[in-house]
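Give me structure tokens for this 151-residue protein.
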Amino acid sequence: MADLALAIAHHLLIFSLAGVLAFEIGAIRSGITRDDMVRIARVDLWYGILAAAILVVGFTRAIFAAKGWAYYSANALFWAKIGAFAVVGLLSIGPTLAIIGWRRASADNRAFSPTLSNIRTVRRFLWAEASVFAFIPALAAAMARGYGLLP
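Here you go.
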């Protein structure tokens, strides 16, 4: 039963993170308002919380659930999945720093609006995150079917 509960939690967290990423891609656009920036900053905080929870639940699952650490630690696709998640995390740093900066700037100056160039850069990072993120479920599906085991 613990294996099932951890699997469900892990999947719900992953889908939630995908939803937050989709929200940010949709919300960060030219003409965003101060209220938009505040809302985006709140949602971006959840991005970090969800990412941390995914790591905790994921590693708990890998260590204590049905297949156990011996299976995961000897699976190249598991490490590729972890690597993809790390790349997504690294790509998220730029947008998060920009969002924090926008929120601070808009607190000091109610008329503040990020430049179109800044918005384009952040959107490029978000789309790069989404592109790498798309590999994670593909790797997980292959791994769940026994692929990737090292000799």
